[in-house]
Amino acid sequence: MDSPSPSSLLGRPCRHQALLTLPAQEAHVSAARHFAADLLETWSVPASERDSAVLIVDELAANAAQYGRERMTLLLVLDDGTLHIVVTDSGTTVERHRPDIAPDEHGRGTGIVQYLAQSTEVHQTRSGREVRACLRCSP
Question: What pTM, to 2 d.p., does this model score?
Answer without folding.
Answer: 0.79
